[in-house]
Ribonuclease J (Nocardioides koreensis), 561 residues
Amino acid sequence: MSHPHPELSTPAALPKGGLRITPLGGLGEVGRNMTVFEYDDRLLIVDCGVLFPEDSHPGVDLILPDFDAIRDRLDQVEALVLTHGHEDHIGATPYLLRERGDIPLVGSELTLALLGSKLREHRLKETVHHVVKEGDRISFGPFDLEFVAVNHSIPDALAVAIRTGAGMVLHTGDFKMDQLPLDGRITDLRAFARLGEEGVDLFLTDSTNAETPGFTPAEKSITPVIDRVFHESQQRIIVACFASHVHRVQQILDAAYAHERQVAYVGRSMVRNMAIARDLGYLKVPPGVLVDTKDLADLPPERQVLISTGSQGEPMSALSRIAQRNHNFVHIEEGDTVLLASSLIPGNENAVYRVINGLARWGAKVVHKGNALVHVSGHASAGELLYCYNIVKPKNVLPVHGEIRHMRANADLARATGVPNVVVAEDGVVVDLVDGVASVAGKVDCGYVFVDGSSVGDITESDLKDRRILGEEGFISVIVVVDSVTGKVSSGPEIHARGFAEDDSTFDEIKQPICDALDRTVAEGNTDAYQLQQTVRRVVGRWVSNTHRRRPMIIPVVIEA
Ligand SMILES: [Zn+2]
Ligand SMILES: [Zn+2]
C-alpha cells in the first residue's frame, strides 16, 4: 500500500522534552488500532488490534498494523495498554508478543481475560499482565497512567490519561455516553472534567460516529423490540451478535427467561467469551436458561433460542453455515426467526445481505437493523463528542478510530467548540507534542501486513492483485517450444485457460499470430526466453482485450530445445 502522504519525509529527532505520537493503525480505517507514544527514548503502546479483510483481499485472514517503525526498538517498550477487549484493539497482540514476549500488558480484568484466552490459543506463555481498573494510577518508565471508566459495546472499557514531562494526553479509547447502561457503568465525565481542570494538552477521541448527529440511543431502548420479537415468534429464535457483546447477550438471556425459552450458544468464540464473562461476573445467566446445543434440539422449537456468531456475514461462521443449510446440527426451518442484533461494519454489506437472503430462502423471518431497532452503536455520536470537548477543554485534539471522513467530521466538532489546535493525521503520520503544541513531524512506513494461514507478512499487495485478477478475469497459459539454433517455433503454441472460455479451441485463431510475432522478434535479434515470453504476452493480451474485453492473467512459457 502506498503511503497516504508521500509528501512527508522521515521525522527529525524528537526535541528533548517532547512527546511523539505515531499511529500505526486505526487512523484511516475502522480496525487494527495501534498508537505508539515516545518520550525520552522510551515507548508506550496503546492497543494492538486487527482489521478484517474485505472482498478486495482474497484469501487473507487478518490484516495487522505494520510493526516496522518500532521493530528495532521493542526493548524500549515500557508497556502495551489495551483499552478494551474488541478484536480491533487486542487482536494483533499475539503477533507483537511473538517478537518480544515479555512486553507488560495493561488492561481491565475482562480485557486481559479475553486477551489471555487468545494468547493461549497462540501458545504464548509467560506473558506479563497488570490488571487495572478505573481510578487506578500506575507508572511505566516516564509514562504515568491513570484509567477512567468509559461505556462501550463491551464491558470494562477504559480511557487512559498519559502524563509525561511533555504534558497530559487523554485517550478515550472506544466510548459512548449511554446514561442508562445495562450495567450502570457510565463514562466517567466527572473524571474527564477533573483531568480537564488539570489541563489536557492532547485529546485523542473516537471518531467512528462523528458524522452521526445527536446522541447514540441507550442500549435499553432495544429491550422492548427484542421483547416483541420473542412475543411474536411461534418457533425457534436464532440471534446473531458479536461474540464480545456481553450486554446484548444479557438482554437475550433475560428475554428468553421471561418467555420460558432455553438458550444455547453456537460458535467457538461465543462459547468461550461468554464463559469468561460469566466466570468474572459480567454476564448474569438466569437459572436454568442455558443448555447445551444437543439438549436444546430435544426441546420443541417454540422453546429454543440460539445465540450465534456471524453477524457480519463471515463465510465460515455459524450463521453463514446455517443460511446455507450445512451446519452440523442447526437446520433452519420455515417460520424460524433470525435476529441480527449488530451493526453493519462498512465493507461487510454484501456478505450480510447474502446471509439474510440465504435465511429468507428457507422461510425464516429475518429481523435486522434495516427493519427494526435491534441494535445501537457502541460509539459516541456528534452530540456526545461536543459535550466531551466542552468538558475537557483540551489544547490540542487528534481524532482517532475512523475512516478519514469520520476523523474530518470529528475535527470539525472539536473546532466548533473552540479547541485551538486540531491535527488530522492518518496511519504512519507522526505527530509531535512540543511546548504544548501538537503538529505533524513526518511519516513512517505503515502498510497493511497480511496474515494468510500461518504466514504473516509474506503476502504482498501485488500477490493480492494477482489473486483478484485470477478470481475475476481467469488465467491463460501459453507454452511454445522454439528451436535453440534457428529460433523457429518447433512445437505449440499450446494454450490452456481457466475461468475464461469453455473450450480451448477458442484460442485457435491466435496461434498463428503468436508464431508470426515470435519470428519477427527473433528476426530483430531478440532471442532470449524472457523477450520471447514478453512477445507472447503482448500478442495474447492484445487479442483477449480486443476480442473478449477481458484482462486475464497470462503466463507465457517459452522453452528452447
Ligand atoms: Zn470497541
Ligand atoms: Zn474499536
